[in-house]
Specification:
Distance between the termini: 20 Å
Mean pLDDT: 95
Largest sheet: none
Structural class: mainly alpha
Helix content: over 70%
Number of strands: 0
Order of helices and strands: HHHHHHHHHH
Number of helices: 10
Radius of gyration: 16 Å
C-alpha cells in the first residue's frame, strides 16, 4: 500500500479542527476502556489499519485484555463484554453502517437502557469522530507506524 496524500500537511487547519473535536470527545464522561472498544470496533468495520494499530495499542496500555481485543469482531458471541459495552457496540455498528442499518429501534432501545441521554449524545459524538478519522486514514491511505513487525518480515 502506498500513501495517497499527507492530509496533515495538505490542510493543517482542517486537521486542527479534527484534533479539537477529538480532545472534546476524549474529555467527555465515557470511560476510556469503552471509548477504545468503540474506536476499535468502528475501525474494524471501516478497515482502518492505522486506527486499529493505534487504538488496540492504547487499549492494551490502559489494561485491556488481549482476549477482548481479539474477540471484538465477534462480540455478540462472547460473554467477555458487559451489557453497557454491548449496547455501545451495537450502536457503533448501527451508526458506522448507517446506510444499511438506518439506526434500528432495537439498537436505540438497548442504548437507552444503559446510557443516560447525555451519554447517548457523547457516545454518538465518539462514533462520529472515529468514523471521521477512519475516513481520513483510509481515504488517503495513511500507513500505520511500522515497528518490530516490519523488521521481522524483512529479516
Amino acid at each position: 500500500m502506498q500513501a495517497r496524500l499527507n492530509h496533515w500537511q495538505a490542510n493543517p487547519n482542517a486537521m486542527q479542527a479534527m484534533l479539537a473535536l477529538q480532545k472534546r470527545v476524549s474529555a467527555g464522561p465515557l470511560e476510556f476502556s469503552l471509548q477504545e472498544l468503540v474506536k476499535t470496533r468502528a475501525s474494524q468495520i471501516n478497515g482502518c489499519a492505522y486506527c486499529l494499530d493505534m487504538h488496540t495499542k492504547d487499549a492494551r496500555k490502559a489494561g485491556e485484555s488481549e482476549a477482548r481485543l481479539y474477540l471484538l469482531n465477534a462480540w455478540r458471541e462472547s460473554p467477555l463484554y458487559s451489557e453497557r459495552e454491548r449496547a455501545a457496540l451495537a450502536w457503533t455498528e448501527a451508526l458506522t453502517n448507517l446506510a444499511q442499518t438506518r439506526a434500528p429501534d432495537a439498537d436505540y432501545a438497548l442504548l437507552q437502557e444503559h446510557f443516560t441521554p447525555e451519554e447517548q449524545v457523547e457516545l454518538t459524538l465518539l462514533i462520529v469522530t472515529i468514523n471521521g478519522w477512519n475516513r481520513f486514514a483510509v481515504g488517503f491511505r495513511a500507513i500505520h507506524p511500522l515497528g518490530e513487525e516490519s523488521a521481522a518480515k524483512s529479516a
